[in-house]
Design goal:
Helix content is about 35%, strand content about 25%. By secondary structure, the chain is α+β, with helices and mostly antiparallel strands. The strands form four sheets. The chain has a six-stranded antiparallel beta sheet, with helices on both faces. Strand 7 and strand 8 form a beta hairpin. The longest helix is centred in the last third of the chain and has 28 residues.
């Protein structure tokens, strides 16, 4: 069995290469700060001067965030190797596209993949597949938008968030996972809200179908009242009928909850 690493680095941050190589080879460093560890993926960050593989590898003056994707189940490993970009690759290039379009996301630093297969000669192999992938970006200490409805600044945040969604739609961007946990919030020195987007592997660009774009309201809130109010704020910012946008936002949320409920019931029936 032969193993090969594929590493792509942001050309503006060449000094991140040792860190990416070390994490790809050795996995999560012992001194990494774990943000999230789930059944599918692990998220951690490495402070400046942090170690990996017994060596100091983070020579940058920023902390580096690492998303380690799970080993893909059959047949996805073969699909990602030969037919479809991996989640790490999509995260990296989607982040670059977002920045070019004028939106915020932690600076993409690079990504890596581990490919394995049966070696039959020096330059050829059989049944190659991708077994692991990692996405590396700047770590930002900003809070996410969970429970945004209860924030004391909700009266100013609501129209700002509605205007931001309108700006995203005008740019033709469709976030499949547009939820509060995937949006980081910063308020700059001028008091303006800055929204930073994470978990970028499921996105589409050049989408202008309103029925698709309005699906971004499906899980932005579990409360009908706030989904409606956000839809109104979006309509005002987008120059559309606020009442109609409110209804479309709520419809998207209800349809998603119904599908999500069916999916969860099926999972319980098969023991997942």
């Amino acid at each position: 069995m032969a193993t090969r690493q594929r590493i792509i680095i942001n050309e503006n941050y060449p000094s991140v290469q040792p860190l990416i190589k070390a994490v790809t080879r050795h996995g999560q460093p012992s001194d990494a700060e774990v943000v999230y560890k789930g059944r599918r993926n692990t998220l951690f960050y490495i402070l400046p001067g942090g170690n990996a593989g017994g060596k100091t590898v983070n020579d940058l003056d920023i902390s580096v965030n690492v998303k380690a994707f799970r080993i893909p189940p059959f047949p996805n490993g073969y699909v990602y190797r030969s037919f479809r970009p991996s989640k790490a690759k999509r995260s990296f290039f989607n982040a670059e596209k977002l920045i070019k379009l004028g939106f915020h996301t932690p600076v993409p630093l690079g990504y890596s993949e581990i490919h394995t297969g049966w070696k039959i000669s020096r330059n050829a192999g059989l049944w190659p597949k991708m077994t692991r992938s990692f996405y590396f970006c700047e770590h930002l200490p900003y809070p996410n938008l969970r429970d945004w409805e209860d924030r004391p600044d909700i009266d100013s945040l609501l129209p700002a968030l509605g205007a931001e969604i309108a700006r995203i739609h005008a740019a033709g961007i469709w976030f499949h996972d547009f939820s509060p946990g995937n949006i980081l919030l910063n308020r700059n020195g001028r008091g303006e809200y800055e929204f930073y987007y994470v978990d970028l592997n499921r996105m589409e660009f050049d989408v202008h179908d309103p029925s698709k774009l309005m699906q971004m309201f499906k899980s932005i809130s579990w409360h009908d009242e706030w989904t409606e109010r956000l839809g109104e704020a979006y309509g005002i910012a987008a120059g559309k009928d606020p009442s109609a946008m409110s209804r479309m936002a709520l419809d998207a949320a209800h349809q998603w909850r119904e599908r999500h409920g069916v999916k969860e019931r099926l999972k319980s029936l098969i023991g997942k």
